[in-house]
Amino acid sequence: MYSELSDDDKEMYLDVLREAPMLPFSNFVSRGDIPDKIDIARPRSYFDREVYRLVRQTSRDRSSRLIPILGSAGTGKTHTYHSFKDKERENRKKLEQSSEDQEIEVTQIEPADWTIIYVPSPPASIRVLLHVYTCIIEDVGPEILDIVSKRLVFDKWGGKKAGIFQKPKIDEVIQKGIREFPGVFADCVKALVTYQLDKNKKPLAERWLLGEDLDPEELSELGINSVVEEDDVCLAMIKIITENLDRVLILYFDELESPYRMHGEAAERKFLEILKRLYNEVKGLVIIIAVLKEIWPRILEIADQPLRSRMEPEQELKPFSLNDLKIFYSRT
User: What is the mean pLDDT of residues 118-129?
Assistant: First the structure.
């Protein structure tokens, strides 16, 4: 019976099994929140090398890249994310412990900091950018706001104290920030400066930066008119973050076929438009889109020519062989 199901039906069936808490199948495959403990990495080494190459290039020129990863149901698309997350931790330790002249293994990324962020299928067809922004904040942690705001406020916009008794004027710092980030960025600048320089309003600014709902009186207290959940404001915050981090962000979009399955073709087109905006307008990203191999031709038809022409060649996940299993066993 299972073999007679369509690929979409198979995915839905697997989702049901994963969500069932009392069944022995609950974590028989990887999920975004459940890693697979066993990693037979050899069949995937070609894809790992390709992603490392893109990260190195993006680290150098800050231009974003997009690469599709294809595979049938159960071939390890989600598990691939967890594998990279493990490598991210290893790479971070290596950067912290190694000196500049330490030899780098061929299979490892050269000294460039990076973070991979899991972006599951959005729960709704609206506020997709807020979904991406929330994934970034949740993965890296709220400290990302502290890192970015300190770099901007103190290093670029003159927010450092000039003397023991001389405090920077918040309005002047905000104006310097708005000159660098005008227009739709203005409220983002106000929130970041307030977060660093106004102790009384810092909790309120932090709530705004985290995308929480503020009532009109609270927004007025901050001198802000917009909210992060608005697409343009949310994209502005993502841009500010990526341009002021000393690392590459890898966005791992899993189950790219889900918007179509859950919300229809219009939602899928909107989702692809969001991907295109991230790719075209944001610096310092490597975007990985994981999608069912059988669905990929339909997505290519929907994607416009500029996006198709600029993305990296798709990579297909291959199942491991008996020889791969023997090698894994011998090394364990």
Answer: 85
pLDDT at residue 107 above 50?
no
175 and 55 within one domain? no
Q: What is the chain's mean pLDDT, rounded?
A: 83
Are 251 and 326 found together in one domain? yes
**pLDDT tens track for 224-247:** 999 999 999 999 999 999 999 989
Domain that holds residue 177: 141-228
Q: HEC states along the chain? A: CHHHCCHHHHHHHHHHHHHCCCCCCCCCCCECCECCCCCCCHHHHHHHHHHHHHHHHHHHHCCCEEEEEEECCCCCHHHHHHHHHHHHHHHHHHHHHCCCCCCCCCCCCCCCCEEEEEECCCCCCCCHHHHHHHHHHHHHCCHHHHHHHHHHHHHHCCCCCCCCCCCCCHHHHHHHHHHHCCHHHHHHHHHHHHHHHCCCCHHHHHHHHCCCCCCHHHHHHHCCCCCCCCHHHHHHHHHHHHHCCCCEEEEEECCCCHHHHHHCHHHHHHHHHHHHHHHHHCCCEEEEEEEECCCHHHHHHHCCHHHHHHCCCCEECCCCCHHHHHHHHHHC
pTM: 0.81
Identify the pLDDT of residue 303: 86
Please tell me the predicted confidence (pLDDT) of residue 15: 66
Residue 135 falls inside a structural domain:
no
Is residue 171 included in any domain, yes or no? yes
Residues 1 and 117 in one domain: yes
- Whether residues 123 and 249 share a domain: the answer is yes
